[in-house]
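Please check both lines for our workbook:

___
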Amino acid sequence: MLKRLLRHPRALALGAAAIAAWLRLVHRTTRWRIEGREHLRAIWESGVPAIGAFWHDQLPLMVFTWTHRAPGEPGPGPMRCAVLVSRHRDGRMIGDVVVRLGVEVVHGSSSRGGVEAFRELRRLLAEGHSVAITPDGPRGPRRVAQPGVARLAALTGARVLPLGVAVSRRIVLNTWDRMAMPLPFGRGGVAYGAPVAVAPDEDEDAALARIAAALTAAAARAEALAGMHA
């Protein structure tokens, strides 16, 4: 009975609203230090879509790396970003949260080895949408990039923008990715790495290693900016 109640669309909507409100509170009450913002601004100004990539454990606050505005900073104009989420109940919940925080969502599927999801990402990039993905999601292993991100960059010509975000006050969950659930009134760090280009004829393993190293460096830099290595 309780499980059926929690699966009800109204319960899911209320849960998504509560999570989005909590993340807004964290974002507004955190003292942020940001590095590499010029890389994101260059993407906005170029109008050329990119692939925002980050490790799955940083998911809760990652939407703010795209929607955050410094005082007086212009927004991305027509540049849009879409996150691909599954049609599963958990995916719908995540999608509802993301939409409430100002980022578009496209519902796809991870069936048949992710073929349908990969095609949807290619379509979005071709139509001028930037996309956001977690190369180690949705099941891991933790911080081990799967080939899709390098393949997507090589086939579309879109560059991979490494993203990292961290907060000093958080609860680390006992999940496969050790996801960090943020708490308000702490220090935060956001790091944007230099975009990574993948040539169509580049060795896939080599490209994947470069992307993974850039994501790990961005995550580590964000933690340092948040004062977590002091």
About this structure: The first strand starts at residue 31 and ends at 35. The CA atoms of residues 74 and 122 lie 28 Å apart. The chain is about 45% helix and 20% strand. The chain has one domain: 2-225.
